Amino acid sequence: PFQQRGAHEIREIRQFHFTGWPDHGVPYHATGLLGFVRQVKSKSPPSAGPLVVHCSAGAGRTGCFIVIDIMLDMAEREGVVDIYNCVRELRSRRVNMVQTEEQYVFIHDAILEACLCGDTSIPASQVRSAYYEMNKLDPQTNSSQIKEEFRTLNMVTPTLRVEDCSIALLPRNHEKNRCMDVLPPDRCLPFLITIDGESSNYINAALMD
Known about the structure:
This is protein-tyrosine-phosphatase. The chain is mainly alpha-helical. It folds into 2 domains: 2-117, Protein tyrosine phosphatase superfamily (Protein-Tyrosine Phosphatase, Chain A, Alpha-Beta Complex), CATH 3.90.190.10; 159-209, no CATH class. The protein is built from 6 helices and 4 strands. It has helices at 31-42, 60-78, 83-91, 101-117, 127-134, 145-156; strands at residues 2-3, 10-11, 137-138, 143-144. Strands 1-2 form a two-stranded antiparallel sheet. It is globular, with a radius of gyration of 22 Å.
């Protein structure tokens, strides 16, 4: 709770800090930010005051958060989204909201994921019962929720390109790959510490956050 000196009214202020945004570009997946937006919304009761959003410049990442928040509400309320006009409206009030094309594309990816996948988070105490329900067959589709989720997952997961795995494909690293069609992308590689400085620091593994 926050109380201003000399005042009798006590107000509660909650601060949320999203740490998954990289120094350059945008997050590779929108899943983390979508979960963050939902968490913020769940902790903001109808009686709460305005939400204050800021980043380093208060335009790029801030704009992404605000647009995603607005579009999630619009999708739920009206069944449609209008990202273009939302960004246009924000820019009429603050310059350079959503600064780059990469951020604009990321917003579309985030809303697409939210609309296709929904909120798939499950409280830890309910995993067992939820898993049981997810495996039940729908008599109309002859499919289960878990199968449908996996189909959606395959649909929204980008396929790795050759250039994404350039380090794994270097000739000096071939012998470290048991199977040449199971390779880690460069962005997820852990690097070994080498003693002589000449040995390859590559290992066929991927860091998971």
